[in-house]
Amino acid sequence: MEIKTTRLLLREFVPDDWESVFIYRNDPRYRRFYPGDAESEAEARVFVEWMIEQQKSVPRKTYQLAITLPERAGIIGNAGIRLRGQGGHETAVSQADIGYELDPRYWGQGYATEAAGAVLDFGFETLGVHRIWSQCISENRASAHVLEKLGMRREGRLHEHEFFKERYWDTLIYAILVDGWRPNQVK
Q1: The pLDDT of residue 172 is above 60
Q2: Distance CA 172, CA 138 (A)
Q3: Phi/psi of residue 107, each to 5°?
Q4: CA dist 109 to 132, 133, 142, 182, Å?
Q5: CA 40/CA 35 separation, integer angstroms
Q6: Each residue's pLDDT tens digit, 2-57
Q7: Is the pTM of this model over 0.85?
Q8: Are the CB atoms for 60 and 68 separated by under 8 Å?
Q9: Domains of the chain, with CATH numbers?
Q10: Residue among 100, 49, 63 at smallest CA distance from 79
Q11: DSSP E strands: which ranges in the chain?
């Protein structure tokens, strides 16, 4: 499976992607909003192996895709959607959540918004999802800004919802309904 955008190619993970994951997930800027100070090579490999296993699931509930720049080797992050519930009709999916992460060397260039927008298009247009939500650490203003640029509305704040780095963190919840999304809204 592939999704092409103006500047990106989102594709299925392959075994060699672990090296790029290992590099960007160990950047201190990336680690700021994640537990722990580092990720091992083994943990990066397990993450990629799990993503590859998800590709084989029937029915498939997780579509986490590697983000690539067509002119560059390796990946610069990943974005995906996870189906969470079914509606009244057996083929209708009522909701899903999205997530994304990007190599800090590529922050501030609109890639996260472009990739997440493509995932929203896929969720609404191809998977037939009714509601898509996401969450981020409240202090991660860049991630919250991505969700707002996508047209997602902030629905709430979970106070002291996550605990890592020796403190509690608030989490923001954002969502958008199919009626509020315009195909290819974000380029």
Answers
A1: yes
A2: 5
A3: -65, 155
A4: 24, 23, 11, 22
A5: 13
A6: 999 999 999 999 999 999 999 999 999 999 999 888 999 999 999 999 999 999 99
A7: yes
A8: no
A9: 2-180 (3.40.630.30)
A10: 100
A11: 2-4, 9-11, 62-68, 77-86, 93-102, 129-137, 153-164, 167-177
